[in-house]
Design goal:
three-stranded antiparallel beta sheet; alpha/beta; Rossmann fold; seven-stranded mixed beta sheet; COMT-like; Arc Repressor Mutant, subunit A
Length: about 325
């Protein structure tokens, strides 16, 4: 019963986050349900019952009418250093309704989101700047959560120009440059026009202004020439056929001796829990892509004319796959 009711819990988390309750409690301390309802323009009885449902799963603690947010619940605060605020909002607004069509995916192979929205997910996102902004914020969140510490101790291969393909706000590139000891390297972030427009007004873009150029484009058509290419959580969005198209544009533009860095999770064998197994369900229902095993990555890269040279473990659940075009 607990598993079957999971969709109710996820929607309750979305609503409570969207109302701003965890942010208020995290920033200002405990409060009463009546005061929270007034602050958030919520019905007091409905809010009391929502909080009561979320307390047993570790989000709040209550003492009569007084409500406190737990350390776990505080991650839903917009101001928390490891905030999942934008992830909760994007999941609730974008993914939750589309997953009602998951049975269609199992029958046809078409992503549930494509059926629900009537077009591919990324096309639907790009049609509304507010959606693009929230999506970029959600993706950027992973830099301080699941990806935290990923580049600790990692040294970039030689090369003066790094191209972050599908890099959104460029947070991953910023982190790599920050860890690097070569101040002469410069970067390029390539993404769709709507994404780049939103990214250029972000705090991350301001930090990168002196070293990084933001370029609007389509990685299926062409990418800039560079010495190092980054594909951070890009290939898992796409089918093998589409991945070969992306890798083909990189191979065509790459400078001699160029290196490719793929940042992804690898699906481990067996039944043990791993974040990428859950993420694979999102790929199935939303985008039509997939999380891959090590052998699937080797086969994919080989079929696209690349050689996988090494896999670098990191302190995070993700790895760095280093490859080069043949």
């Amino acid at each position: 019963m607990q598993l079957l009711g999971g969709f109710q819990v996820s929607q309750a988390l979305f609503v409570i986050t969207d109302l701003g309750v965890p942010t208020i409690l995290d920033q200002e301390g405990p409060s009463t349900v009546t005061a929270l309802a007034e602050r958030t323009n919520a019905d007091p009885d409905a809010l009391r019952r929502l909080i009561r449902c979320l307390a047993p799963v570790g989000v709040f603690t209550t003492d009569g009418e007084r409500v406190s947010v737990t350390p776990l619940g505080a991650t839903l605060s917009e101001k928390h250093p490891h905030s999942l605020h934008s992830v909760a909002r994007a999941s609730g607004e974008f993914h939750y309704p589309a997953f009602g069509e998951l049975r269609h995916t199992l029958r046809t192979g078409q992503p549930a989101a494509e059926k629900y929205y009537g077009m591919p997910y990324f096309d639907w996102l790009a049609a509304d700047p507010a959606r693009v902004q929230l999506f970029n914020q959600a993706m950027g969140t992973f830099a301080t959560t699941l990806r935290a510490g990923m580049f600790d101790g990692y040294r970039l291969p030689p090369g003066g120009v790094i191209a972050d393909i599908g890099g959104a706000e460029g947070r991953m590139l910023a982190e790599l440059l920050d860890h690097d000891d070569d101040p002469t390297r410069r970067g390029i972030v390539l993404d769709l026009p709507a994404t780049i427009e939103a990214a250029q007004s972000s705090p991350a873009a301001a930090e990168l202004a002196d070293r990084v150029e933001f370029v609007a484009g389509d990685f299926f058509a062409a990418v800039p020439t560079a010495d190092i290419y980054l594909l951070g959580w890009v290939l898992h969005n796409w089918s093998d056929q589409d991945c070969r198209r992306i890798l083909g544009t990189i191979a065509a533009a790459a400078a001699p001796g160029a290196r490719l860095l793929i940042l992804e999770g690898l699906v481990p064998p067996g039944d043990q829990p791993h974040p990428v197994k859950a993420l694979d369900l999102s790929m199935l229902g939303i985008l039509g892509g997939k999380e891959r095993t090590e052998q699937e990555f080797r086969d994919l890269l080989d079929s696209a004319g690349f050689t996988l040279d090494r896999i670098v473990p990191t302190p995070s659940p993700y790895l760095i796959l280093e490859a080069e075009p043949r």
